[in-house]
């Protein structure tokens, strides 16, 4: 897939850990539909509390026994929002280990217009910077979001010096000048 004279700007060969997968999923929960769901649950909780306070302030009798279904729903939603990314992160990490633990050496090579996922030095996939919809970072990761909920996460400590800044400048330039491939 690559020509002989092309050399990457940066190569990140750091393996992801279980904590990285959990961190990645928690970060992606804060975007898109999951964020909307969490906001709806939060608004519903605030509305229920406000209505209870208002009813008590007006001297109405509040039957707390009849409110238990709403409380259970909010408790389950909160537990789900907390536990789900951690559980799924552990599962995805186990899948990752099955493919990567004792297998071939994998890395992500960053060129001026695209990145490649490489196994034993051979390109397995090429992803154009122009197709990146969003770039965000967590405590230990840089995460690139492509179309159809496809993500590429790389460890921050896998970049030497200012190589991530060079890659990020190329990503911004490509996204601004090149039409996205559909």
> What is the 3D form?
elongated
Helix content: 40-55%
Radius of gyration: 22 Å
Main sheet strand line-up: 1-2-3-4
Helix tally? 4
Largest sheet: 4 strands, antiparallel
**Helix-strand category:** alpha+beta
Calculate the terminal CA-CA distance, rounded to whole Å: 20 Å
* Secondary-structure element string: EHHHEEEEEEH
Strand tally = 7
Low-confidence stretches: none
Protein described:
- The protein is of the alpha+beta class.
- About 45% of the residues lie in helices and about 20% in strands.
- The strands form 2 sheets. Strands 1-2-3-4 form a 4-stranded antiparallel β-sheet.
- Helix 1 (about 20-30) packs across helix 3 and helix 2 packs antiparallel against helix 3 (about 70-100).
How would you sum up this structure in a few lines?
47% of the residues lie in helices and 20% in strands. The chain is an alpha+beta fold.
Provide the descriptors you would attach to this structure in a database record:
3-stranded antiparallel sheet; alpha+beta; single chain; 4 helices; 4-stranded antiparallel sheet; 182 residues
